[in-house]
Fold this sequence. Notes:
By secondary structure, this protein is α+β, with helices and mostly antiparallel strands. It has helices at 23-39, 47-65, 111-118, and strands spanning 13-19, 74-81, 84-91, 121-126, 132-139.
Amino acid sequence: xxxxxxxxxxxxxxxxxxxxxxxxxxxxxxxxxxxxxxxxxxxxxxxxxxxxxxxxxxxxxxxxxxxxxxxxxxxxxxxxxxxxxxxxxxxxxxxxxxxxxxxxxxxxxxxxxxxxxxxxxxxxxxxxxxxxxxxxxxxxxxxxx
Length: 145
């Protein structure tokens, strides 16, 4: 009988919080996301922290401005595993966002273009219950701490 190979330990860090679908809730989501990254070993002002702050700010702003359903919150989830931070923001509005055409004269619509430029990859998915989840991933440049 051959010995069973040892399995590598996998560290997954997760943060989840619901926020009111208000400008204050969006701001708090960004601040707590950056604080959580600092706790996970990615200090304020580092490229990973700045990228996640921008992504959370844009996704939360979209949830408040476009995805808001009266009386419903939005949820932020962060997952840190294998050198990747995954940001998931869920709201209860059924419409999935689409990447707009680049128009330098447009008054708005740049949020997803920024996310597309900063994130390693991003997309949308269905969720249990009403609404959708918009997610983005950023490489940390280092294995989990």
